[in-house]
UniProtKB/TrEMBL annotation:
Pfam families documented for this protein: EcsB
Lineage of the species this protein comes from: Bacteria, Bacillati, Bacillota, Bacilli, Lactobacillales
Originating species: Pediococcus inopinatus
Transmembrane segments: 20-41, 61-81, 102-125, 131-149, 185-202, 306-326, 347-368, 374-396
Name of the protein in its database record: ABC transporter permease
Keywords annotated in UniProt: Membrane, Transmembrane, Transmembrane helix
Length: 405
């Protein structure tokens, strides 16, 4: 079973590398450098004006440390066929799952170390902490992570997903208590609390797996959900065959859909709008990227960085909406319409223009309000509108032509 884990981990690593080549392309790396540089510059300027004794420093640090803890997740790398082929080796699966816990713990620990290092200047100024005291919070996070992963492993032998009450208690309430005591009382309080909590979770996991059978279906479903989150991130940059959207009724959007005349000369405006509203893939990507752009622009004071981020998010949204053009290609009835491909493209461009212009206007308003500058709002709206025009006039026709070829 240990050889199986090694093979699965290697295959998973190669698959992630394949998609990372599309994520870390030249354009995105340059954009990421500007983003990190801009945020780092703003963080540095903030620390110069920050001083100890600020009342909100404690809640921010406690909440930040608790949020970092939520990034840990048990990666079992199980497949749909495993319950059939590995069932005779079920008792040996615990060694496989322990390896997966160590792998997940190592990866999560790296993320947590980086997160605490970023926060360390803030904590050093706000609470006058030494390097050893800040390091104790890193150790606390690492210990809590191992306990959280043991909790996830334990539920596979309970044959049920733990209720939200237990998850809230273990992953949120208890860590908030430990970090609050660590900030305001002593770092030993957080360290001892984390050791006790994790020890109890590990102890319970060791008792469960010897007396209970593995919940294969639950384990496979949880792994599928975890991988789907990763694939959805990669789907922001390239097409991922593993991502399959679901369709929802969404009756509350009927009023918006009713504003579109389905008897117009271009019925594709209605069809594409309906697909966008009912599909979780397209609507989810659009709203997530728009909200992320709004949140970032709320904290960006540099006008040039704000314009760059707006242009980047508008491009990403437009790029992710392109597969919507082929949404009805496999529907035989759409090929019976006496409508040309030019009309179809015009209907698609009309919908995308409305969506992108709404995003541009929203980002411009947020950027202007956050910096109290009407000039910035006008400039960002103008540059964003030019980008939308360029995408619809030059970029989209080339991409649509490739999709039809």
């Amino acid at each position: 079973m240990l050889n199986l884990w090694t093979q699965r981990k290697r295959a998973h690593f190669l698959e992630m590398l394949k998609y990372l080549r599309y994520v870390l392309n030249d354009h995105f790396v340059i954009a990421l450098m500007f983003l990190v540089g801009g945020l780092g510059f703003g963080y540095s300027n903030f620390l110069k004006t920050f001083h100890a004794g600020t009342w909100w420093a404690g809640p921010v640090a406690i909440f930040y440390l608790t949020i970092i803890l939520q990034f840990c997740s048990l990666a079992t790398l199980l497949k749909r066929a495993d319950p059939v082929f590995l069932l005779p080796r079920e008792h040996d699966m615990h060694g496989y799952l322990k390896k997966s816990r160590i792998h997940s713990w190592t990866f999560s620990s790296v993320v947590e170390v980086v997160g605490v290092v970023i926060l360390s200047p803030f904590m050093a100024i706000a609470f006058q902490l030494s390097v050893i005291q800040i390091g104790s919070f890193i150790i606390t996070l690492i210990i809590l992570t191992f306990g959280s992963l043991s909790l996830e492993l334990n539920q596979l032998y309970q044959n049920r997903v733990f209720g939200w009450q237990q998850s809230l208690l273990t992953n949120w309430i208890f860590p908030l208590i430990w970090f609050t005591g660590g900030i305001y009382l002593s770092f030993w309080f957080a360290l001892v609390g984390a050791i006790i909590q994790s020890f109890l979770e590990i102890r319970r996991e060791q008792q469960q797996w010897q007396t209970r059978s593995l919940a294969w279906k639950l384990a496979v479903n949880l792994e599928d959900q975890r991988m789907l989150k990763i694939y959805r991130f990669f789907n922001l940059f390239t097409d991922v065959p593993n991502v399959h959207g679901t369709v929802h009724r969404r009756k509350y959007l009927d009023r918006i859909l009713g504003m579109i005349d389905r008897r117009s000369q271009n019925p594709y405006v209605y069809l594409f709008s309906r697909a966008l509203m009912r599909s979780t893939v397209y609507s989810g990507l659009y709203f997530r990227l728009t909200i992320l752009g709004v949140v970032l622009l709320m904290f960006i004071s540099n006008i040039y960085l704000a314009i760059f981020l707006q242009l980047l998010f508008v491009y990403l949204i437009g790029f992710q909406l392109l597969p919507l053009f082929a949404n009805y290609n496999e529907n035989v009835f759409t090929h019976l319409y006496p409508i040309s491909a030019v009309t179809k493209a015009a209907g698609f461009n009309q919908l995308v223009m409305i969506l992108l212009e709404f995003t541009v206007s929203l980002l411009a308003i947020v950027g202007g309000l956050s910096n109290m500058s009407i000039l910035q709002a006008v400039i960002t709206w103008f540059t964003g509108s030019i980008e939308v025009w360029g995408l619809l006039k030059f970029y989209f026709p080339i991409r649509i032509k490739k999709m039809n070829s």
